[in-house]
Amino acid sequence: MSNRPTAAQVAHLQAQVKPALKILQDNCSPVSDATRDAAVVLTAFCDVALYVMARTNPGKIRDAALSVQIKHYLEGPPA
User: Fold this and answer.
1) How many helices (H) and strands (E) does the chain have?
2) Which of 26, 30, 31, 57 has its CA 20 to 30 A from that of 40?
3) Residues 64, 28, 39, 60, Cα dihedral to 10°
4) For residue 72, what are the contacts with CB-CB under 8 A and spacing of at least 6?
5) Secondary structure class of 51 (helix, strand, coil)
6) Dihedral sign, Cα of residue 66, residue 67, residue 73, residue 79
7) Among 10-19, 27-36, 43-52, 59-68, which is the least confidently predicted range?
8) Phi, psi for residue 3 in degrees, rounded to 5
9) What's this model's pTM, rounded to 2 decimal places?
10) Which residues of 53-65 are buried (b: 16+ CB within 10 A; e: fewer)?
11) CA dist 1 to 5, 11, 44, 53, 57, Å?
């Protein structure tokens, strides 16, 4: 039995992330080359993150998420 996320779990995350990125991209105003470039970078980053998540032990993902949550609690969200 694998401890990795199932393909269905990764697909579910992807189904949530892709539309959210599209909403951000469509609603950034004014649309400029810099905005488009930022959207491409974020999309690529999310694709890599989903790829890594599909191949990583869920415990490590939970540990990383908890670390980020604690950091945001102590320091506030990123500016």
Assistant:
1) 3, 0
2) 57
3) 10
4) 78
5) helix
6) negative
7) 27-36
8) -90, 0
9) 0.63
10) bbeeeeeeeeeee
11) 11, 19, 30, 17, 12
